[in-house]
Structure formats: structure tokens, C-alpha cells
Amino acid sequence: MTKNNGESPQKTEVKVSLIGGHRLAGATLHERTVTASLIGGADIDLTDVDIPDSARLRITKLSLIGGVTLRVRRDVRVEVRGLRLGGVKDDGPSEPGGPTVRIDAWGLVGGVSVHRS
User: Fold this and answer.
1) Which pTM was predicted?
2) In whole angstroms, what is the distance from residue 52 CA to residue 84 CA?
3) Fewer CB atoms < 10 Å away: N or C end of the chain?
4) pLDDT per position as a tens digit, 52-67
């Protein structure tokens, strides 16, 4: 994960594809990531990443068809926003006071599924 030291603006990584989703691992994510596709979801794994407690990652998913699968540690708070037909499934509460990952999911079909380990 690329960290912001407060002196420079946050980097935004953009991934675009027409058909097919994106697989993102924590070491390759910036503090802001945008993934866009006509058809295809995003599979994001942050379980092996040491995210500082004050960190706020923001991931934006844009697609007509395709959802988001997010894997995080138990101490990570997850905020889900956006408009999609599919809803949100989170398999457990997070512990208070941890880092925050915000998912902005915009699309017609596809939900957001959060798995904690």
C-alpha cells in the first residue's frame, strides 16, 4: 500500500477494462483506487497488509455488471457507499478503532461482499 505522508497529494490508481474484472492485492493499492469495467467485478485482498490505524483507503468500483469481494482483517472498519442492485454482505463486525476501507460501488448488478479473517 502506498502511504501518504501528509506532504504530497494522495495518488489515485485507475484500472480500466471493457470485459473482465480486476484482482487487487494490498501491496499494489494506493490510498485511492478506481476500478472501472463494463462487465466484471473486483476481487480485493487486504488481509496481509499492515494498514496503520489512522489510514483511510478509498476504493471506487464502476461497472454495469459486477460486484466487489473484499477480504480484510477483523480490525478493519469497512464503509460501503454507492448505488447498486445487490446489497452488502458483511460476515462480521469489525473491532473499534482500526483503519478504515471505504468502498464506493456504482453499478446496475452486483453487490459488495466483505469477508473478515
Assistant:
1) 0.80
2) 30
3) C
4) 887 888 999 999 999 9
